[in-house]
Amino acid sequence: MLRDPSVKYRPFPPINLPDRQWPSRTITKPPRWLSTDMRDGNQALIDPMDAEKKTRFFDLICRVGIKEIEVGFPSAGATEFDFISGLVRDGRIPDDVTVQVLTQARRDLIETSFESLRGAKTGIVHVYNAVSPAWRKIVFGMTRDEIKGIAVDAAKLLRDNAAARPETDWHFQYSPETFSTAEVDFSVEVCAAVMEVLQPTADKPIIFNLPATVECATPNIYADQIEYFCRNIPNRDAVVVSLHTHNDRGTGVAAAELGMMAGADRVEGCLLGNGERTGNCDLVTVAMNLYTQGVDPGLDFSDIDEIVKTVEYCTNIPVHPRTPYAGDLVFTAFSGSHQDAIKKGFAAQEAKNDQLWEVPYLPIDPADLGRSYEAVIRVNSQSGKGGVAWVLEQDKGLKLPKRMQADFSRHVQRLADESSRELNAADIWRAFVKAYRLEVPQRFTLGAYDETRAPNGDRIFAGAIEIDGQQHSVSGRGNGLISSVVAAMKEGFGIDLDIADYAEHAIGHGSGAQAAAYVECRTPDGRTLWGVGIDEDVATASVRAILSAASAAE
């Protein structure tokens, strides 16, 4: 890298728009959406999609609810042409979906594009030519007037080809390609000249696609360009302003959002951001960003995992685990402090009387995307007691008392450090069973027992407890079942426990529910011991919890 990059690169000049309005606006409704997965996305693949994958992708886009789909570049070759014409011929285009085809501004290519949609109920033909200084000077060697002449001639071909095929409801889209690096007043001039030819109306507007063909500036500059264009294009009510951002600087989504604030009507992009170089604007992210602001995007991503699966299959490109809303890890917390906040957030959410989503670190309810809560908190060496407790609760239904969470967390931390990997639910359960002596056979095994009440109100526990294969009859007296079991353990085995805390809860519902009991004990030498008991009967669960703690006391 250069120590002084200014000798090689120049900052992008700002747009002179001192009274810009877009910064004070908010997005209150969704744009029109266009998927270019099958055109811009497909042409960026190492191995372009075959007909089967294109068909599968087309069906996915329709299920999601996108109503405008750029299905390809029919003049690129027979494969593209045959697929597009096949969609029309086989009646695969839903009545509420309009397909769009892209073509360069040449007579033969434009005619081929119209022919590919022969018989379609409706269709958009999208023509483009580059207008920015670098392309004019380096690629074409043309003047401004010559570049504008290409656009005007293409518009005439659109008009004449549509008139020759009146059975289709034709719509037109023109792109001043490289808009984001062109002089914005020149882009307005070229588009106005195209309008002079096509004579759009409010009932049948022209679409002007204003692409950030290569993202070369911050998103606010793109927004200024869009607002300038919207202010200065004639007959604005006869124009649909469409955005087509790329992600060269990593801000394709932000540019699209600011462009909408600046007055654009439509957003073009790809599901999960596929596309040339660093990709197109990710339609999933833009749509779900709207959703989290209370705006219905009009699209359905409620089965995000199926969408990811289809996109990965059709593009042969894996979706990164950190991809917003769709990645495997986007709703997952490993950090202990994050896990604790999320756990508390879910608890507060359950206690609320309204649906307003307020869970720390989760900007959206994973369930809205078809995700479960099981993977929200995962455990490794960075995790804390809240995360460990969450996994146990989700996997086994156990709701550990807060101090017990801290106790068990130490066992899990030791295991995570030793294994140097993420711990799954099975790992954590095995650690729990080992830590609180739930394995069978246990040190102390409970046999048959009775609980009776003495005339003075005391409870009497009398039962059989097996130790190392030998059965012992024990009894004890206390003011309740737990204290009577503690007395029996002291009298029968010399194990002295003082109960510091006790908790219990049901696991599950109905006739198949079980009970979990937790007991915190102190020993004469100052140790703290925890015991756990699980049984169909809550009283038996509490006895088992005492025996669990007693096993640790020896």
Automatic annotation (TrEMBL):
BP GO terms, sorted: L-leucine biosynthetic process
Single annotated GO MF: 2-isopropylmalate synthase activity
UniProt keyword annotations, A-Z: Acyltransferase, Amino-acid biosynthesis, Branched-chain amino acid biosynthesis, Cytoplasm, Leucine biosynthesis, Magnesium, Metal-binding, Transferase
Catalytic activity: 3-methyl-2-oxobutanoate + acetyl-CoA + H2O = (2S)-2-isopropylmalate + CoA + H(+)
EC number assigned by the record: 2.3.3.13
Cellular component GO terms, alphabetical: cytoplasm
Sequence positions that bind Mg(2+): 40, 244, 246, 280
Classification via Pfam families: HMGL-like, IPMS_D2, LeuA_dimer
HAMAP family noted in UniProt: LeuA_type2
Assembly description: Homodimer.
Name listed for the protein in its UniProt record: 2-isopropylmalate synthase
Species of the source: Sphingomonas tagetis
